[in-house]
Amino acid sequence: MAETPLLEVKNLSVSFRVYGGMLRVLDGVNLTVHAGEKVGLVGETGCGKTTTMKTILRVVPQPPAVINSGEIRFKGREVLKMRQRELTDMRGQGISMIFQDPTAALNPVFTVGQQLEAAIRYASAESRRMPRQEVRRRAVRALSEVALADPERLLDSYPAQLSGGMRQRVCIGMALSTEPELLIADEPGTALDVTIQDQVLRLLHRLVEEKHTSVILITHTLGIVRQITDRVYVMYAGSVVEVAPTRRLFAQPSHPYTQGLMAAVPRLSGGGISDGIPGRIPDYMNPPTGCRFHPRCPHAMPVCKRQKPALLAIEDAEHQAACFLYDAPERVRAYQQEGGLT
Amino acid sequence: MLNNASQPDHAVGRSAIDPHRLAQIERRNRRERWGRAWYKFSRNPLSVLGLIMVVTITLMAIFAPFVAPYPQHAEPFTDFANASKPPGGQYLFGTDEIGRDILSRCIFGFRYALVMGVAVLSLVVPVGVLLGLVAGYFQGTIIDTIIMRVTDIFLSVPPLILALAVASVLQPNLTNAMLAVSLMWWPWYTRLVYGLASALRNEYFVVSAETIGAGTGHILFREILPNMVSPILTKMSLDMGWVVIIGSMLSFVGLGVQPPTPGLGTMVAAGARFLPDQWWIAIFPALAIVVVVLGFNLLGDGLRDLFSAEES
Amino acid sequence: MQRQADALRRLGLFLARRLVQSIFVLFGLSILIFTIARVLPGDPARTALGARAPQETVDRLREEMHLNDTLPVQYTYWLGDALRGDFGMSLVTRRSVTTDIAEFLPASLELVIFAGVLTLVGGIALGTLSARYKDSWVDNLIRILSYAGVVTPAFIFAIIFLLVFGLALDWLPSIGRLSEGVPKPPLVTGLITVDALLAGQLATFWDALQHLIMPGVALALGSMAQEARITRATMADNLNKDYIAAERALGIPERVVMGRFLLKPSLIPTISIFALDFAANLANAFLVELIFNWPGISRYGVNAMLRKDLNAITAVILILGVVFILMNIVVDLVVGALDPRIRLRAARSD
Q1: In a mutagenesis test of the B interface, which of C19, C33, C36, C316 is the best target, namely the one with the most B β-carbons within 10 Å?
Q2: B8 and B81 share a domain?
Q3: Does residue B136 share a domain with residue B14?
């Protein structure tokens, strides 16, 4: 692990200024992606996955968002300190992103071709000097790669003329057309029905394998994580609560939230549908003190209310969880002796 | 906090049949909604300023004889000894060419501006809304076609121009000016309500009311209308400003309030002859118009922000 | 090729449909105006001739004007004449109303078009600036000025301009379209600025432009402020859209994202309400032309209204109706060109 990671996020905190106060949406996120790695990011809706990714690309709208603290390093360079020019260089060729809702992510008043060709045109200094026909040729290729028939015609179509599945494929084609080193895929296919979602994910998987692209895959579906990713981050209410190589996470979920998440997955064999995790995602205006999960946690201890737990190693540094249960045994005993949580 | 709030609702869930309890909850929710709305509204200082301006102007207009320093100057009155005095101690806004206090006349001018606005809106809104509701609900029928084609005709010429034309063929006075403006203003409400009603008529709550056999009147006024109160109110507040402007324009060309009655537009027109030397005669009534319009615009914008925030 | 032919066919269909609609609306408008003009108390023939004219002259004119027939018959005669471009004589000028309109309409069009250009260019520029530097002092200043613009009637601006720039400072000419002694350009469009340019008379162009500035700006300020507010709101809204984030995330430079991918969708509401702005400018021109003694159709119309010159009143309103309807069609075409969703919807409803 001596080489510089491709992407390193340290202690990132982001708030949203809204009517009547600040929403503290990200509360110290830590995340690392190495070259060639496929990383999963799971967690409930609204836990800050998308905000983290948009912040990495610096495309989160500011205002209302405010980046309070933290570091984001892409290939060793600090993203939060980049000038506009450097950012534009990093985006596209360095990192690109597939947005959650393909309908919202396509500009409704431009044709697919106008948007795709702009992405290809501005990808690098060389591509800016490319003749029009070459840009067009690459655009056609980008659409055929995502298995879209009749790409010539598609380029002249407006997003409103395409089906949901086609739009999703266009978005994937667009994100890959700049040949990024790191691809962020935010719940690809969630907006589609299950069979098409499956096709889209298979396609995405095949393409990143072929191109050796590093990936951050955001999803609700644990099955997909298991199939595709090398390592998984679990987020809850704006923080990473657990990280582990995929196999180890499924074999030994350690954070109480991860355990709840796994138990909430309906299985065909076994006891039917579980109750899920009781309670709901906290109010970000006045988040719970200490560990944000403590009001819902079956193992909550007094210390959880006072103090925010850091990521602690479980067996080794590859598997970490942010939970006081994994502190040194004598401390855990001391925490538990403080008595029940009122 | 979260637990406290959800507790009573659970209780209702179990004993949902108790109507007394339900009414109580309903009342509490409504009170909370108003409280929240007021809180949001009061967060924007400009909206509050608009409300204060509108309330102050309204009170000044109602109690003009008691507020104005020289109420008799709003009537036929001359005092050539004090004619064309610049703004100063005795006459805060100065006096006009025949010695009338401009401040007093502006305060009475608010009266005619507001009377015009209120009268026009109270004529126009019921008619416009009713026609729009009916046309929207019976979308695609002959009723829709007739109402909306007629509306289109009225909308095909800028309303001020038609109002000027109508006012010009009638006797020039405040009543006829109000009639002329009203005659041209209703189509804007018809079109607004038509758009809203034709969207709402396919909503589930309307369809379900139809399914259980509710009468047309019930559907129009109890199901559809309550859902468009906020855009109508917003438009009314903004329109108060526009009607005041149009009224002052009619008065300016001599088709509205007639001298010596202190209409703000009439005063601007009369004072314009004395520019630039006796600037105060025209400028203060002009400012008075701007203040009225500004107040209603700030209030209307505040309402719009409030309602659009409510929706999202 | 096929696509272009399709687009042309759709455009033709759209225009045909709008023209048919417009004819119906104008027909309705003519009935409305005729009713307004004829329902009023008093005898149009007597009004036309004046109180001292002998009774038999009045009777002859009544016969000529078909005033003894029923209203529908009168309307048919009136419409027949109007369709032939004959609106009768004007009481004010003692000339054919058609001649008057041909003379005064171009002046009004020049003023309203100039104000329209100012409205769009100024409104979009200010709105974009405001959205780009949202919540900064630039934004706050523009928003305060916009408010002032929206709530101040055009005739008040006109009076203030006349007072300050015309009389007190004497920077700009305050009356009419051209200074005395400046040669008139040969008549082509009737818009003096355009005609002067066509004829290469730069001095005349410059003089005409100076005359345009005060009434044009007084007319434009209100709608410009309105447009600036709408542009700002739409841009600020669109700036938070996912597609802007997505385009930025693809590495498209900020200049292209803002100037192309944000600007086009944000212009749609701005352009859509331009028809209303144009209507407001047409209406406000009534007072602005009066104040600056601008020899336009609106000033002519106000004088006609004050003198109860019915022939002129009906003709002026009908002509302004035609101008407004044409403007609406142009705006719809531009919005359709900007927004494919509207085109697609129109194509489906064929």
Answers
A1: C36
A2: no
A3: no
Prediction ipTM score? 0.82
Give tens-digit pLDDT for A49-98. 888 888 888 888 777 788 888 888 888 888 888 888 888 888 888 888 88
B19 and B62 together in one domain: no
Pick A119's closest partner by Cβ from C250, C260, C264. Answer: C250
The pLDDT of residue A338: 73
pLDDT for B5 equals: 39
Q: Which residues of chain C have pLDDT under 70?
A: 1-3, 40-43, 47-48, 345-350
CATH number at residue A43: 3.40.50.300
The reported pLDDT for the residue numbered B8 is 42
Cα–Cα distances in angstroms (integers) from residue B19 to residues B8, B12, C282, in the given order: 15, 10, 58
* Contact: C245, A99; criterion CB under 8 Å: yes
Clarify whether residues B33 and B51 are in a common domain.
no
- Model pLDDT for residues B41-54, shown as the tens digit of each residue: 777 788 888 899 99
- Same-domain pairing of B214 and B114: yes
- Residue C340 contacts A where some CB pair is shorter than 8 Å: yes
Cα gap C111→C123, rounded to integer Å: 17
Q: Where are the alpha helices (DSSP H) in chain C?
A: 2-39, 44-49, 55-64, 71-83, 97-132, 137-151, 154-161, 192-199, 202-239, 242-249, 254-256, 263-272, 274-291, 297-306, 310-338, 340-348
Name every residue whose Cβ is closer than 8 Å to that of residue B158 and which is 6 or more positions away in sequence: C279, C280, C282, C283, C320, C324
- Asked if A104 lies within 8 A of C242 by C-beta distance, the reply is yes
* Pairwise CB contact (< 8 Å): C340 & A108: yes
Domain membership flag for residue A85: yes
Average pLDDT over residues A26-47: 84
The structural domain count of chain A equals 1
Q: Which residue in chain A is spatially nearest to B306 when comparing CA positions?
A: A19
Residue range of the domain that includes B168: 47-311
pTM of the shown model: 0.79
**pLDDT grade for B131, boundaries at 50, 70 and 90:** very high
> What is the domain extent for residue A21?
7-252
pLDDT tens-digit series, residues C79-123:
888 888 888 888 778 888 899 999 899 999 999 999 999 999 999
- Residues shown for chain B: 312
The pLDDT value recorded for residue B11 is 40
Question: With an 8 Å Cβ cutoff, are C36 and B156 in contact?
Answer: no
Distance (Å) from the alpha carbon of C281 to chain B's nearest alpha carbon = 9
Number of structural domains chain B divides into: 2
Which residues on A lie below 8 Å from B40 (Cβ)? 19
Closest chain A residue to C245, measured at CA: A59
Q: How far is C250 from chain B (nearest CA, A)?
A: 29
- Residue B309: how many CA atoms within 13 Å on its side-chain side? 18
Nearest to C265 among A91, A107, A111 (CB): A107
What CATH number is given for C97-349 in this structure?
Answer: 1.10.3720.10
User: Residues B19, B134: one domain?
Assistant: no
What's the confidence (pLDDT) of residue B237?
A: 85
C84 touches chain A (CB under 8 A): no
Residues B37 and B51 in one domain: no
Q: Could B275 and C321 be called an inter-chain contact, meaning their C-beta atoms sit closer than 8 Å?
A: no
Burial of C128-160, coded b for 16+ CB within 10 Å and e otherwise, reads bbbbbebeeeebeebbebbbebbbbbbbbbbbb
Q: Look at chain C and count its residues.
A: 350
Lowest mean pLDDT among A146-150, B105-109, B262-266, C287-291: A146-150
C153 and B289 in contact by Cβ < 8 A?
yes
Read off the tokens for A61.
Answer: 């709208």
**Residues of C with CB below 8 A from B293's CB?**
151-153
Give yes or no: residues B63 and B180 share one domain: yes
